[in-house]
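[Help] Beginner question about ligand-bound structures

Sorry if this is basic. My supervisor gave me a protein sequence and a SMILES string for magnesium ion and asked me to "get the holo structure". I don't really know what that means in practice or what format the answer should be in. Inputs are pasted below exactly as I got them.
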Amino acid sequence: MATGEQQPGVRALENAVFTRGSPGTAQVDRTHRTGAGCDAMTDSWEIINSLAEKLNSLSTVPHEQELLGQALKLAEETGEVAEAAIGALSMNPRNGNSHTWDDVRKEACDVAATALILIARTGADPRDIFESHLHFLQRRSLTGEATE
Ligand SMILES: [Mg+2]
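Answer (accepted):
No worries, everyone starts somewhere. Holo just means with the ligand present. The predicted complex, written as structure tokens, is below.
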């Protein structure tokens, strides 16, 4: 792969296309996913791990500092969700209707991907951690169980 050329998985992540619409009408164009029999979820976890490995390979600072930077990046992305939601609702008179709900969805995806990459960069398997926590949340929701 030539320098500056993106890995196919990274390109797929960046090329996810959402249609415009109101909060309840999102449709995702999945034409960027290629390959017969492609297991999208497996591909997604492979992309997350690949992005984490790429970021780790580019690191020039101590690992703990990289993790702090990744956590700060997550905070930045959550701010972008808030900015997009404010823009979609025209809540800032200076900017008006500056964003769409598709922008909000894309920024929420940035948050999710950044959080999973953070988990991967800690050395854990993001799929194991996420799915385990999701099941915990389900149990807590169904039973009122407050402890893990
Ligand atoms: Mg973003």
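A couple of things worth pointing out: The CA atoms of residues 43 and 143 lie 33 Å apart. Residues 8-143 form one domain. Feel free to follow up in the thread.
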